[in-house]
Amino acid sequence: MLKDFVKAFRPDDAQVREAVKDEQLRLAANQMKIKEAKLPVMVVFEGWSAAGKGEVIGRVIKEMDPRFYRVTTLSKPTETDLRYPFLRRFLMEIPEGGKFTFFDQYWMKDTTEEAASGEITGADYKRRIDSINRAERSLHDNGYLVMKFFLQIDRKEQKKRLKALQEDENTAWRVTETDLRQNRHYDEYLDIYDRYLEDTNRSVAPWYIIDSSNKRWAALQILRFLNQGISTALQNQAYAAPILQNTFRLEPIPKLSEISLKNKTIEQAEYKKELDKLQAQLRELHYELYRKKIPVIICYEGWDAAGKGGNIKRITSALDPRGFEVQPIASPEPHEKARHFLWRFWTRLPKTGHITIFDRTWYGRVMVERIEGFCSENDWQRAYNEINEFEKELNDWGAVIIKFWVQIDNQTQLERFNERQNTPEKRWKITDEDWRNREKWPQYEVAVDEMLSKTNTSFAPWHILESVDKKYARIKALKIVIDELQKACDRKKS
Amino acid sequence: MLKDFVKAFRPDDAQVREAVKDEQLRLAANQMKIKEAKLPVMVVFEGWSAAGKGEVIGRVIKEMDPRFYRVTTLSKPTETDLRYPFLRRFLMEIPEGGKFTFFDQYWMKDTTEEAASGEITGADYKRRIDSINRAERSLHDNGYLVMKFFLQIDRKEQKKRLKALQEDENTAWRVTETDLRQNRHYDEYLDIYDRYLEDTNRSVAPWYIIDSSNKRWAALQILRFLNQGISTALQNQAYAAPILQNTFRLEPIPKLSEISLKNKTIEQAEYKKELDKLQAQLRELHYELYRKKIPVIICYEGWDAAGKGGNIKRITSALDPRGFEVQPIASPEPHEKARHFLWRFWTRLPKTGHITIFDRTWYGRVMVERIEGFCSENDWQRAYNEINEFEKELNDWGAVIIKFWVQIDNQTQLERFNERQNTPEKRWKITDEDWRNREKWPQYEVAVDEMLSKTNTSFAPWHILESVDKKYARIKALKIVIDELQKACDRKKS
What we know:
- Chain A is of the alpha/beta class.
- Helix content of chain A is 50%, strand content 12%.
- Chain A has a 5-stranded parallel β-sheet with strand order 2-3-1-4-5, sandwiched between helices. A 5-stranded parallel β-sheet of chain A has the order 7-8-6-9-10, sandwiched between helices.
- In chain A, helix 3 links the parallel strand 2 (69-73) and strand 3 (100-104).
- The longest helix of chain A is centred in the N-terminal third of the chain and has 25 residues, at 13-37.
- The radius of gyration of chain A is 26 Å and the shape is elongated.
- The relative contact order of chain A is 0.12.
């Protein structure tokens, strides 16, 4: 696409100047509509070194209210960044509904640099492109307007600009060896850029190639596309994205009603002995996976009063507190709710070598949000695939993902609720909402069955913890965690 | 995507049987909603030989009302088909709003067969994929629901089925040498299919891979996706598609107000002489391009009373009547209006070696439809790119495209209108609508300027015919046609 690109006819300077002004004011007005409609807008600028991204961004935002946008500039990944999945440091920056984020380069730049240096090739490159396309599609499908601009200048123009920057003592520092190499190997980069643009050009997040031989003219082209894109997105507030096929291997899993809870018990003495032994094992493993830099994600879902808290405690008490974190997941905060539903989980991931335990998870999307109508039917129907994609992303990064469903029967829940209600020091644990949720047990059961069957992938399988006897469930959880971590440690050398 | 595909968990036969029934009835009900919403639905079935497409389609449509769907089966292209652009014979079959077309194979099969035989490779394959992706995107953007199913069976299963078909004397004839070759070279085909599916899997027209090891189960998977897709599409009736960048080279072109009409005249004697000479030339050229099988498309747009009819007559009177057609384009018929706006032009294309003259064209989309509000703003804004893509498709096929804008000034139109009004034998040529359109001259002028500047591509440029002196315009048109045809004949050998 870049190779075929031909500059559009450029009006004369006076016309451009006037039109830029008009479009800037139009963008300022659009900003209010964006705010009203709670539409989140991502605008991405990529392009050749010295194509003038900074100056062009400056012109684009000139008339905007600074409370409603942010500009983020791609820096070199920090050591911390490198301990997270590739997509994370970009996804951290996505705007909330009603606001803009302008990205002064983002995951294209990193990817094309790595392709240029030969760090990612073949299957790795393809996997990266898949990740990016999925992420952009998922942002779009969840209501984001994503517009991507590539600032194009030819080799001669680039050379001229780099030279001018070098000759001025105030700007000489801005010209790096990478920039100069890019100009020397312009055609190689052209190949890489062209391929990337083709590979990631989708209706859900289209590329616009911008003739940047003149910066004001470049700004005008961008402003026009941007205003047009905003108008279109505002018309599509009620858009329901297509529900794509879930292409991940799903393993069969029993329905809740088929899970026997009988005889899933353990004697106190046996429990004590096992607990000590398993916790000691887990402690050792924790050090090993810290050394091997394996990230671990443990997910707890289950009925109210099923015993999640006590179960988690038996895991954490075996762990070095410097190497794990428990993330209790309640209703999203307003700033979380205003973003992609997975954002608040992207921001809570463990670093490599660390463990994060989620006490409730992203599966809220297909349980409480489904049942309470906090999202549309299309949203939760799409979410199974989105969640599998998210977990696949984490798995590709190297994470061990262990998902627990803590299962009790309806009668057991009632007994535990009553006990909580009748025991003064436990009463804080039971709320009116718990009772209300309990009335929706049958609806939850349908939702949980669908969730288990549609997200039971080979790379992130569900494990059922039969928890009428909480001790039984704790021992089972520990064994599964140990087993999975052992396998992961065995797989990974160093 | 095919290579990674893993079968989903399959419920037992009784469950499948019951669920198929439910989904069939749901589809029958959806069909009425489709009709109500005037939504056009394209359902495509592709897959391995002996995957059971026929039987599966039968199950899918079982409960549907036959008045609202059509099944088209891909046959070998006829000799006539081969004289048209590749996409045409498929696009001919697209449904009108409110109806379904089920395609028992379509442009995937042709493309993958040609890729398998080595007929299309490299740049040709890529161009084909681009054409297909553009066509599917344009269908989606213009309100079509496009769902594509690939019926997957493994090599062993295919072998077993082919053998069973061969052994039964009633079905033996159905097994072709191609089918057997496919089974022998299963892995090669897998590569080709996988690549095609990846290359054409887009949110606007997604692929769904269907485990077809059991036909009833295959039907169930399809019915579920289909019903879900329909629900989603029904929610998106007001969808406005993104306005993509027009990536074709646009040549600068003057605004109408900048076109001088002064001194664009010709003496009668000179006219007579020139006309005879040019028509003789054109006659000769017509035979040459017939022999060389070059298709020619000549487009006339212009102000009312600008002299289009007389101009066209001077062209056609030089042509062999067996080798050209004039297509007068009025408002679309209901069955045309119910389809993609370019459909009625796809069905009117010339065969190779033939000339079609369009008296008014697809540019109605960005003129009368824009000004009269017959389509949405998003529709006509998107149309510039859609039209350029359409013309590019025709150009890639080998067509010569000549577009005329027949220009007069406002005063000249008034004089001609009055003359028509006052001359009894010409009065039929002037209607109230002409007078109403005349009042909108300034709006048309804006629309025409935008149209000319956004569709003046190198492969299908506009030519202005200054037509205050109609004779001048006729001579100019003949010269341009001769010039363009001569160039095309020179380019093409045989």
